[in-house]
Structure formats: structure tokens, C-alpha cells
Design goal:
binds zinc ion, seven-stranded mixed β-sheet, single chain, 13 strands, Metallo-beta-lactamase, Chain A, 14 helices, about 425 residues, alpha/beta
Length: about 425
Amino acid sequence: MATNPSAKFGTMRGRPPEEAKFFWTGGPIEVAPRTWFASQFSGCVAFETDDGLVLVDTGTKQFAPALAAMLRQKTQAPVHTAIYTHGHIDHAYGLDRFLIPGQKKPRVIAHSAMPARFQRYHDTARHNAALNARQFGGTVEAQSADAYAAFGQPPIPPDTLYDDRLNITVGGEEFELHHCKGETDDHTWVWSPSRRVLCPGDLFIWAVPNDGNPQKVQRFAWERAKGLREMAAKKPNALCPGHGGPVAGDEAKIARMLTETADFLDTVVSRTVAAMNNGSPPHVDIVTGIDLPKSDSPWLQPVYDDTEFLVRNVIRYYGGWWSGRPSELKPAPRAVLAREIAALAGGAAKLAERAEAIASNGDFRLACHLADFALEAAPSDAAVQARVAAIYDRRADTETSLMTINIFNSASAYAKAGKPFA
Ligand SMILES: [Zn+2]
């Protein structure tokens, strides 16, 4: 993911500046006395104490040198304690770049679920590379060797693990660490009671929360909502998010940002559970039938994840993998089905043609089913490849969330290569 950041930023062209908050880059900003925030795609926070720095998050391997250079404009104190808010590669992989030459190895704290995450990355490195290639708009074949190497242990793994709650004292000051599932099962939010600074990690990202990601393991929107309310109850005076810019000196705004996001998530979850309780229809029927909440607030725009995908993760948590369609319990191979449908339609070219016509009327959901069948029925037909790629290119242009845009861009790249996802 860190291998091709331009893919991320490219998707924000033409969007209102407030939406670009998710991609905010800047700093160092002093959010409280002796407390600095900086962000290069992902954020990090340095609390300077009399015994050295408490550092919350460390960026990606790629951006850590720039992040560290920003913070080092303000403080040369050694890192006493580092806290990884979660084990994603844009938070836990840059610590080595923040250390002062010759300094003692810092204590590194994380939630107890984090080592299992690193093991999973190691065990599924090529799978992960494929998922991230798609999430960022390409094909796995086009990934560099770095993309595989990116997954596994971070350069400095955590040495101190905790379960639910941990209070630490550094330089005579207390810092609270709270576990909260949300985007991941290993998330920590950090609260400094004396400076009133909140570091939520990716539990707050200036966008519809990343609790739906279609390719990743289970996420926990309802747990995040609970955690956001606990954070709001602390009445923070500064918010230093995992992605996007900081807010400092505006308690009312921070409270609104946290509670509105919690309300948004609770609405998605309760509507999904209600739909499931209404006879447990097939998953697609729940997803396409639900009334999704929308917000005008700049911190609740679907610029990264897609609200529809949050519904999917709620369904997955409460049920099994079966879609609910009888034919999909033990389905035919897709290529066989695609060839049969193409034969009925008069050939893959006919299917692609019909897909184009439907797309031209704006119904990309329907058009792409036919486009997939066309490509799967005739993957080496150059004309079909081009038509299908063009439909996905056009569809990507109609979407707002990075994940949706890039998966459709990836579908186009695969189509051009004559390789349906299937
Ligand atoms: Zn992140």
C-alpha cells in the first residue's frame, strides 16, 4: 500500500478541500504544550516529557523519515515510549527513524492482539499483496517485490502488550491506553489527562470509518461507536487523528466529531440488524434495500470506505459466508456459468454491448454483472476486454470512496490483461 501512494492521492482530484482532510499532510503543529502532531498520509504525535518522548504512531517505512524530520524540528528528546495504535503498515513500521543516535531502545507498547496480526501478514504475504494491489487500483502482477516485503514484522516490534486498559507514567505524567475494536481488533486509543490530548489512531480518520473494507478481515463498527463515545466523555481539547489534520482548542467541535461519527455507525448497525431480523434475506437484498445514513459534516464523507460496505461487515459478523441465494450454496464454476449466459445472449460480444448500453443509462450496478460475464466467457477477446475495461473506468469515475474507485480501476486493469478477478 505504501508502495504507490500516488494512487491514493490521485483519487482526490476535483473533490472539495474539506474532503481532502483525510489526506492532510503537514506539521509539526503544537496541539498542547510540548505536544506536536505531524502527518504524512498517517499521523504521529510526540509528547515531550522530562524523561523523553511518548510517541504515538510512527507512519509508514516510506514516510517515517519525513515525519521524524518534522517532529525533530521541535524536540531532540529521545523516544522513551512508543505506542502503536494498531498494526497496520502506516502506523507501526517507522519507529527506527525517530530514534536519536545512541539512545536506549525505547519501550514499545501495543495491544496483545498485534503479534497475531504480524504473523497473519507473514503467512499470507502474497494474498495481502493482491488485496492491496486491488485496493490501490492495480494488479498483483504489477506489484513490486517491496509490496511483499512490506508485510511481516515491523522493524521494531512491540515489547510490552496489554489487554483492556493500561496506564503508564512517563516523566511524572500519566497516559491512558484503552483497547477498542473498530477498524482492527488490536486498536488502542491514547488519552493524556494532563494535556487533554486524544490520539484515537484510526478510530477517527476524517471520513466514514473504515469498518467496511471489502477485502480485509472482520471490522467492528458497533465497538468503535462505543469507543468514540468514551473518548468524547473525556472532553478532549485536542484531537490528533490517524489520518487527516488535528483539531486543537475547540472542545465543542471535537465532541461533535466523535459523537456524530458514533451516531452514524450506530444507525448503520441498527438498520442492518433490523433488516437481518426481517427474515434474513440474501445479503445482496439487505445491502441494496437499506436506507444508508448520509451526513453533510466534512468528517463523515465516504471518501475512503463506502457506507454500503459497513453493512456487509455487520452481516458477516452475525452470520456465515453463504450469500443466501440457493444457487450460490454450491455454485457452478463462474466460467461455465458465464459461457452459458453468453451463449443464451448470442455471444460474449452481445453481452458486452448490452452492458455498455445499460451503463450509458447510468445503471452501473446492473451493467457490470453483464460485463463480468462477458469477460469471463471470453477472457482473451481483445474487443470484450476493451469494452469491459471502459465500463469499469467509467464506473470508477462515478464513485466517491477510494476503495470503490480503486477496485473498479483494478477491475479495468485486470480486464485489459484478459484476467477476470474470477
Ligand atoms: Zn491508517
